[in-house]
Design brief:
This protein is an alpha+beta fold and about 80 residues long. Helices cover about 40% and strands about 35% of the residues.
């Protein structure tokens, strides 16, 4: 797996990898992670097309999903530990 790019974002880390004819977009925030696999054949302009997919609307959805994931994990953790 090869790192293609790291993109700045105020709420989470975004890394784009290339492996086995796929771009893998990974977002990380604390202990949580989201990843999306995009076949190279599905994008017309390589990694530049991947950058275009990461628009403001999509990244807002990712941030919302991180918040939901955090709540889910916290609830599970409390059920297990208390």
């Amino acid at each position: 797996m090869r790192v293609i790019a790291e993109l700045p974002h105020p709420e989470f880390k975004i890394t784009i990898f290339n492996m086995n004819q796929k771009f893998i977009v990974k977002m990380e925030r604390g202990i949580l992670e989201q990843s999306y696999k995009i076949p190279e054949m599905d994008v017309t302009d390589g990694v530049n097309s991947v950058f275009e997919l990461l628009d403001e609307e999509f990244l807002n959805t990712v941030a919302t999903r991180f918040a939901e994931m955090g709540k889910d994990f916290k609830a599970s953790y409390h059920r297990y530990n208390y």
